[in-house]
Specification:
The complex is a heterodimer of chains A (about 300) and B (about 525). Chain A has 13 helices and no strands. By secondary structure, chain A is mostly helical. Chain B has about 525 residues and is an alpha+beta fold. In chain B, a hairpin with a 5-residue loop joins β5 and β6. The relative contact order of chain B is 0.16. The chains are: A mainly alpha (about 300), B alpha+beta (about 525). At the A-B interface, α2, α3, α5, α7 and α12 of A face α5 and α11 of B.
Chain lengths: ~300, ~525
């Protein structure tokens, strides 16, 4: 197990290096220039040159990349070109909000998804099955910005139960978590259903039934637990994705998360922020995946690490 | 409550302005929080570290001069009076006494010098530094007298002096905070900085020591509100809903379609304020077919900018007859007689003169090539709507116009290569000097995006900067406007109005003619 972990961790190094290099390349390939965004139309050519050299953007690309890698390895991402705050601080402000939203959305997604999927599977090919699957399909198809706004209209403006924007209280978390959770729930529901159907056809389920295990107990103890293995990896992927930020939902609900930071940074060509956010997202993704793989073993004792 | 056309007030000799009287008849309630909303965080609360002016700066900083909300004239801010030297190379300010920064340190001539030295320093490389033009040094004459010295007369300085880029900062705070000053800003305004949660809110608290409000206020002492909050909500619809629910007290610059509805419903008081922005169709004068002035003029006559304002901008805009929007200093109403009016007949005649004949599908054609060009614009709702309206107007005149949407940073840097035909974008600035950046040949190919070059125009743009006497300076911009309308590097379109709404329980809320919120008199009625 430890050797497996060590090997997986070593594998992340080339992955992260590759990602950082790609991002670096992309940022420098797209048109647009952080200095011009900062100095706007009135900046003089001398001012532009001076700022470029102050920011080190006049150095050859490979030198810029090398210096980024060396400093990032020591945890130093520099300062944002746009806000002049340390990049670590920019991410630090937003990460707790992003984690909170990702956890809440995942909780919504898993609860809704597993319940709907299990109901559909147990009532295979009935109206209930088709009904829940239509709901699930609608959940994947509804665009987040539209669904979010409808929720705001209903629950914030008409019913006045929940605030439309901000991140102060638990009440602020509900609408964005439901919006994000619903689309993720749809995928989990479909996966749970097919996985459950597969499991329900297994011999050991028939055996359990024959032995007279009550239906409810059989579903929870025998079927659902085994059906959860593929679902778990999907939940892990989705959770990791959410930790990278959810731009649209963050924008609609004015949620101060990492997604908006990334998009704002892209619009202003804030190179240090873009690089850091992508790298952090990549690290999270890699580690959540690793965690999911480890959890696999706990859920399914047949899986061994070597 | 605001003026359409700013009064000419750039002082050539001396402008001494007296203080207004204090109105003690009304006693507005003290206390409460005023919450307003905006779409994005300012990059920094350090005015020397930001490319744009924002309400987040105006509530906590003050400038040497400000603008009277009733007359539009420059009135004392942190300066009590000022005098411009005969040669226009120096402005001497007498400063207000008894003013303190939020950190308790005194405001004086040394603070003004420290601020301007920092703004213009090479290390700072401030985006706002260009707005002091030819300023070479700031001299401390005595504790409360300071002199700005210029290498050449710089006429737009007064338009700049009231902008928050030129606000006076606490030298003690600058020295103490260093690079982190932007997160711990210290000014002299009626509200002082308390907290900033990025992408969520900025919180200010009442400055209890404040006692130096400009003369256009009834209340010249500390604000009535205890606290001021600027909420950051990026989505337009969410912003409007938060306001309608009452989470927000003040909704500035409401999105056009919601603004129309809310104005109609009549539940919320509102003002419509002209902005200093102008939207135009810029034509690349170096590239065929738009390198032919007859074609550019024909496009001008084919465009109906009254329709652009009414349809594309929901009527919340005024058509522009000049490259200079009506609210901008330097606009001249006589320009209407030179305006490129909507005249499809004339457009067709000009195209015929340029050798174009009707071709397939009604598109004008020359040498077998259809008259066609592509407009670059931002992928922003209003810009796209303007594009579509222009497209149909030009189509009626036999000109085919394509629209290509782009993200701003890409568009603004890509025009340098000169591969574009045309663009629809906006600018915003209170002084006609802004045209220097768009038409002077020294700005080729960066911000002179239409690749225009004309020696006479260069000279006029330079004179516009150095002619200090207002009447003479206006003559310069009159000629400039006539030339630009004859050569049509731009087809002026419209200048947007800003619709600001507030909750009915906010009393005595005013704006100056630039749309800045005036907060000292404002209070909560319940």
């Amino acid at each position: 197990m430890l050797r497996y972990l060590a090997r997986r961790l070593l594998h992340t190094i080339p992955v992260l290096l590759g990602i950082s290099f790609l991002v670096f390349l992309l940022v420098h390939l797209v048109p647009g220039d952080p200095v011009r965004v900062m100095l706007q139309d009135t900046g003089s050519p001398e001012q532009i040159e001076r700022m470029r050299s102050q920011l080190g953007l006049d150095r050859p690309l490979h030198v810029q990349y090398a210096s980024f890698v060396v400093r990032a390895a020591q945890g130093d991402f520099g300062r944002s070109i746009h806000t002049r705050r340390p990049v670590a601080q920019e991410i630090g402000y937003r990460m707790p909000h992003t984690v909170r939203l990702a956890l809440a959305a995942t909780a919504v997604a898993v609860t809704m998804g597993v319940v709907l999927g299990a109901i559909a599977a147990m009532h295979h090919q009935s109206a209930l099955d088709y009904g829940t699957m239509v709901v699930a399909l609608a959940g994947v198809s509804l665009p987040n910005f539209w669904f979010g706004l409808v929720l705001i209209l209903v629950f914030s403006l008409y019913l006045r139960w929940l605030p439309p924007a901000g991140a102060d209280t638990l009440a602020h978390l509900i609408l964005p978590a439901v919006t994000l959770g619903t689309s993720a729930a749809a995928i989990i529901a479909r996966l749970t259903r097919s996985s459950m159907l597969e499991v329900l056809r297994q011999d050991y389920i028939r055996t359990a039934r024959a032995k007279g295990v009550p239906e409810r107990r059989m579903v929870y103890r025998h079927a659902l637990r085994n059906a959860m293995i593929p679902v778990l990896s999907m939940v892990g992927l989705q959770f990791a994705g959410l930790l990278g930020g959810a731009v649209i939902v963050e924008t609609v609900f004015g949620w101060p998360g990492i997604g908006r930071l990334a998009v704002d940074a892209i619009f202003t060509r804030d190179i240090p922020v873009i690089q850091a956010v992508v790298l952090v997202a990549a690290v999270i993704f890699v580690f959540v995946n690793l965690l999911v793989d480890v959890l696999y073993g706990l859920v399914d004792p047949r899986i061994r690490y070597g | 409550m605001y003026r359409w056309f700013p009064v000419l007030v750039l002082a050539a000799s001396v402008a001494m302005l007296s203080a207004g009287t204090l109105d003690t008849s009304a006693a507005p309630a003290r206390g409460g929080t005023l919450t307003l909303v905006t779409g994005s965080d300012p990059p920094s609360l350090d005015p020397h570290r930001t490319p744009s002016v924002t309400v987040a700066h105006y509530v906590m900083y003050e400038t040497l001069v400000t603008v009277d909300r009733n007359t539009g004239e420059f009135i004392p801010g942190l300066a009590e009076s000022w005098e411009v030297s005969r040669d226009g190379l120096a402005i001497t300010f007498k400063l207000r006494r008894g003013v303190k920064f939020h950190d308790g340190t005194p405001f004086n001539a040394a603070a003004v010098r420290a601020t301007f030295d920092r703004l213009t320093s090479r290390e700072m490389n401030a985006p706002g530094a260009s707005w002091v033009g030819t300023l070479t040094r700031t001299e401390v004459v005595d504790d409360f007298t300071v002199r700005l010295v210029f290498s050449k007369p710089y006429a737009p300085i007064f338009s700049s002096l009231r902008i928050s880029f030129l606000a006076i900062l606490s030298p003690a705070a600058i020295a103490k905070m260093g690079a982190d000053y932007g997160q711990n800003p210290v000014g002299t305004g009626p509200f002082r900085f308390k907290q900033w949660i990025p992408n969520d809110r900025i919180v200010y608290e009442r400055n209890p020591d404040y006692a130096w409000g400009p003369s256009h206020y009834k209340n010249r002492g500390a604000a009535h509100f205890d606290q001021l909050v600027i909420r950051i909500i990026p989505d337009e619809s969410t912003r409007v809903i938060a306001f309608e629910r009452g989470d927000i007290d003040l909704l500035p610059a409401a999105p056009a379609r919601d603004a129309r509805r809310l104005m109609r419903e009549g539940k919320f008081p509102f003002v419509q304020i002209p902005t200093t922005s102008g939207t135009y169709l810029g034509l690349n004068v170096k590239k065929a077919p738009l390198n032919d002035v007859r074609v550019r003029r024909a496009i001008g006559h084919a465009v109906n900018n009254e329709e652009v304002a009414r349809i594309a901008l929901e009527g919340l805009a005024v058509p522009m007859h000049s490259p200079i929007a009506p609210t901008i200093w330097g606009y001249w109403d006589g320009v209407r007689q030179f305006a490129i009016n909507h005249d499809p007949e004339k457009a067709r005649a000009l195209l015929a003169e340029a050798g174009y004949r009707p071709g397939a599908g009604g598109v004008m054609t020359k040498d077998g090539k259809p008259l066609e060009f592509t407009v670059w614009t931002y992928a922003r709702m209003t810009n796209v709507r303007i594009g579509v309206v222009l497209q149909s107007q030009l189509r009626a005149a036999g000109i085919r116009m394509n629209i290509e949407q782009m993200e701003p940073a890409t568009l603004l840097s890509s025009t340098q290569r000169g591969e574009h035909d045309a663009l629809v974008i906006s600018y915003g600035w209170p002084d006609a000097d802004i045209l220097f950046y768009f038409f002077h040949s020294s700005r080729l190919p960066t911000t002179n995006r239409v690749h225009y070059s004309n020696a006479r125009v260069d000279k006029l743009l330079e004179d516009g900067q150095t002619t200090v006497e207002p009447a003479k300076r206006l003559e310069v911009y009159k000629e400039l406007q006539r030339i630009l309308l004859a050569e049509v590097p731009w087809v002026p379109l419209a200048s947007e109005l800003s619709v600001n709404l507030n909750q009915p329980y906010v009393g005595d809320l005013y704006y100056d003619k630039f749309g800045n919120i005036l907060l000292l008199d404002a209070f909560r009625t319940r």
